Each structure stands twice: as structure tokens, then as C-alpha cells.
Amino acid sequence: MPRTGRLTTAAATLAAISVLATACAGQSGAGAADDPKADVTLTFWHGWSAPAEVKAIEENIARFEKAHPNIKVKTTGNMTDDKVNQALRAGGDKAPDVVSSFTTDSVGKFCNSGAFVDLNPFLAKSGVDKAEVFPKTLLEYTQFKGNQCTLPLLNDAYGLVYNKTAFAAAGITEAPRTWSEFTAVAEKLTKRSGDSYEQVGLMPTFHGYETTPMRLAAQWSPTYFGPDGKSNLAADPAFAKMLTAQKDLVAKLGGYQKLERFRAGFGDEWSAEHPFHRGQVAMQIDGEWRAAMAKEAGVPFEIGTAPLPVPDDQAADYGKGYVSGTIMGISAASRKQNAAWELVRYMTTDTAAVVAFANAIHNVPSTLAALDSPDLEVTPEFKTFIDIARHPKSNTTPAQADGGTYQLTFQDFAYAVEKGDVPDLAAGLANTDRQIDTDIAKAQ
Description:
The chain is of the alpha/beta class. It contains 19 helices and nine strands. It has helices at residues 10-16, 51-67, 81-90, 107-113, 120-125, 130-133, 136-141, 164-169, 179-189, 213-217, 237-252, 256-263, 289-296, 337-349, 351-361, 368-371, 380-390, 405-419, 425-443, and strands spanning 40-45, 71-76, 98-101, 151-163, 191-193, 196-202, 281-287, 303-306, 323-330. Strands 1, 2, 3, 4, 5, 6, 7, 8 and 9 form a nine-stranded mixed beta sheet that branches. A hairpin with a 2-residue loop joins strand 5 and strand 6. Helix 18 runs antiparallel to helix 19.
């Protein structure tokens, strides 16, 4: 499937992460002693599994090996963070030299534990100015407390995919830009059928695939942690405003129970039976892959894409969105770190390599040069997500020592809010802050 961030949800992250610092022995960074010009074979583990994805990886590796004839790369796909962490704990020949992960939430753990080496010394030795190569937000989610233990390898931007045919039938001429417009459009596109629906304008509940609290919160430009490192959910009005707006939208579209009954009949997110493909929802919060997947599914309607709406009082910031993506790093247990760096540098910073890979799996490129490359294949639907990735106000969830646990805690609280189980939102957010701070303290 053409996507990089499919395992970035907090629940998947929490199940995956259990890195131990004791597994990370050996030289690292500037102290790596291997000769990158010597004949060597690297082991590279990645998470892609679909045939088209695996083919794209193999083609990228083949180009690398042609440019570096002394380095051979043995790849293993369909590797989860859980499998990676088990190998890192075991160490020795069982551990990979290079790892690519879909789970950006793992970065805090990977960096904090020392499981992956800090790439700053390698960047310096190679004369690579990371601030000139990568967009600012991508650098933020690939490092933790100054430790650049991973680099971006393609990225995902999240926006709105919509049924233009349904819009036209309802007399709607353009995508909504503000939350009030979004609510009105979602109501207008909703077709009720008895105690259920023929179509909902949007499935607004937080179990609706990519409609997570983190995706929506991004439109309010939240600050998850204060300068003191403490959880900031109660102090930043963005979170209460988002939760209130989302709950109001749920109510206007029929209420939580009714919507959840309808959602229970939806098909798999990654199949042709996706509710957007089948016309069950007219708008979908999703990534850059959805329009292409819908076309491949043979949908009978015209597809449009747009940034997600912003709060009415932030109308000037329209165009921003949530971004995440695949990360790439070098195992601290590797004895071939200089050679491994050659692979990481090629796949993450070489413009031709990044563009070719992005074109092959229809993801957003992760370098500034690749975003501007004339060789990048850009459809009108895809351009929306390129622009979201470029937007200066686009944001992401920050790396933390507890990995994605803090996001899971926030998400669980959001589930309770939308169900109506939280009588005091301010007190609930404050309690969630305390839980997050406790979990992070245990992880450090």
C-alpha cells in the first residue's frame, strides 16, 4: 500500500516499543572505526510488505549498490518495531545494521535508550547541513533532546479527501476552509435512512481510521509539553477547543451511538471496501495515498483533496496539517556504522533516490530538494499533500521517552469525551496530564 505512516498510531506504537539500552554496545557516531570502502554486507530491516513497496525498496537498494560496489545490502521486509527491538536486545549477528520504521513515535525511545546512534557526527563528517536538507517539522520528529538518532525517509501529510460528485449534487462548490464551514458541509452531505444512514458527510468519531485526536488537534496548533517538559493538555486551550468542536460535530451528525453503529459496517481501511470508496462517507480525513487508492478501487465519482479545515479564529493558517513519516537509523550494536551511514545518507538525502522512491510508492518526499524536483510525479490530488508538508504551520506529535504512550493516554481520554463520559473537561485534561507525566518519569 502506498503509505509510510500506517503504524504511527499510539496504540500500535505502545504495543511495539520495548527497547533496552543495555543492548546497545559498541562504538558509535564519530567513533565508528570500520572502513566504508572495504567490502562489506549490511543487513537492512524495513516494514514494507506489499509487492509494489518491496519492489521499490529493492530498486532503491540496487541503485545504491551500483553507486557503492563494495557494499552489499541484505534486506528483510515486514519488520515491526517489536521484532527490531527483540533483535537489538539480542545483539550480535542477529541485530540489523540499518533499520527503517513506520513508527515515528518510537524515536524518543530509540534516541533515549541509545538503541540507535546519534547521526549528528555522521552528518558533520559528511558536510551535510540537515537544516538545509530537511523540512523543520521532519527534523523535529526524528530527534529527541538534540540526539538526531534517525532521519526522515519520505513522509505523510494528512488532509481531506472528498467526493466531488456528492459535493456538486448538494450544491457545494468548494472544500470547507474553517471548522464552522466543515460542520455545515458535513451536515448537508449526511443522508439519514431510518435509524441509520445512507451516507454521512464525515465519520467524525475517533475510531474512524485516520480521524484520530492527534490529526484533529494539529489544526489547532497545540503544544503537547511545556518548557518544563510537563504535559500541557490542560494549560493549552487548543486541546479543550478541539475536543469540544469534535463532540459538537458528532452530536450534529446524529450522536455517538448512532454513528458508531453505522461505522461498525465499514470495510477494511486498506481495501477496496473502504467506506469512502463505497460512498458511505463523502469526506475522509486521510493521507496522500487515499485518492490513488480510491481510483485503483474504481470509484464511480470524482475525487477532490484539500487541507483540513482550521478553527475559525485561525483562518489565516489554512493549509496546515498533521505530518509524520518513515524514519531510518543505524543500530548502536552495528560494527559497520560508517558503511551503514553511506546507505542511510543515500536513501535519505540523495535527491534522485528520494524522488524515485516517492514516485514508486506515492508518498510525500522528505527533503526540500526532492519536494521541488521536476522529476517528482505530482497529480492535482497529490499536490494538496505536498503543499501541506511545506506549510510552515504544519505540525506533528513530539518525540518522548515513553514513545507513543502519552498519545495513547490522550487518545483514551478523547474516546471518553466523545462518548459523554467526561463531566468536567478541564479536570479530565488535568488528570490526563498527571498520568502522562507519571508515565514519562517511569520511562526516563
